[in-house]
Design goal:
The protein has about 80 residues and is mainly α. Helices cover about 80% and strands about 0% of the residues.
């Protein structure tokens, strides 16, 4: 992949590489892409939370939900052990 930068942007990137201790421009660019990827994941997570809030479903405390799931798992295991 090739990236073309104006002289001003190249000077900025070179200064950042030096100031922040990157070993190369490529390392700096990879770091920028990783950070952008993290921001995108955070935005997606926030959107999913908002989707849940907007769903109109009454939220339950995690402990209540977890207890229900554990009870369902225990019932399934119990049923499985009886069929053996």
């Amino acid at each position: 992949m090739n990236i073309s930068l104006s002289d001003e942007l190249k000077a900025f990137v070179d200064a950042r590489v030096q100031a922040r201790g990157y070993s190369s421009t490529s390392e700096y660019m990879r770091d920028l892409v990783r950070r952008d990827e993290e921001r995108a994941a955070e935005e997606r997570f926030a959107a999913l939370i908002q989707e849940g809030v907007d769903s109109g479903i009454d939220p339950r405390p995690w402990e209540e939900h977890r207890a229900e799931l554990r009870a369902r798992i225990a019932a399934a295991r119990n049923a499985e052990s009886k069929s053996v």
